[in-house]
Amino acid sequence: MAFDYPKHEKLKSKTAIDLLFSQGKSVSKYPLRLVFVENPDGKEKMQIGVSVSKKHFKKAVDRNYFKRLLREAYRLNKHLLHDNIEKNHVFMLLYQSKDRLSFQEINEKTVQLFEKFVANLK
Question: Which reaction does it catalyse (predicted)?
Fold first, then answer.
């Protein structure tokens, strides 16, 4: 599996995002939260979006920095999800804290979050 984040894996569909927040389930590992839903219409096995709260980070520069860290953590650890799901899913990865964690800590929390998600599937 390639360690990339191609365009077709990016969650951009408004209908998929609406479905995600209306019917999705979530798994949390402070300060991250993964909202997910099965997507029978989707052509891709996984699509993921990232979000950082404007409430916690007022400056766009800070929000964009943490979104970049979340995308990188996903890119490096997506094999944990890809190898363990059979059906198509859409995900939203949310950073929900005022705490400014380092990339190392965010990466560790992402791995723990993905493992918790996989354990909940079984």
Answer: Endonucleolytic cleavage of RNA, removing 5'-extranucleotides from tRNA precursor
Token pair recorded at residue 58? 């007022």
Segment 74-119, tens digit of pLDDT: 999 999 999 999 889 999 999 999 999 999 999 999 999 999 999 9
Going across the sheet that includes 25-29, the strands are 25-29, 32-38, 89-95, 46-52
Distant-in-sequence, close-in-space partners of 103: CB < 8 Å, separation ≥ 6: 69, 72, 73
* Half-sphere exposure at residue 115, Cβ-oriented, CA atoms within 13 angstroms: 7
**Tokens read off for 47:** 């699509």
Yes or no: say if 19 and 39 are a contact pair by the CB < 8 Å rule. yes
Give residue for tokens 């894996």.
9
Give the torsion sign (CA, 15, 21, 24, 27).
Answer: positive
Structure tokens at 109: 């929390």
In the block, tokens 């899913």 appear at 89
Domains in the chain (CATH in brackets) are 9-121 (3.30.230.10)
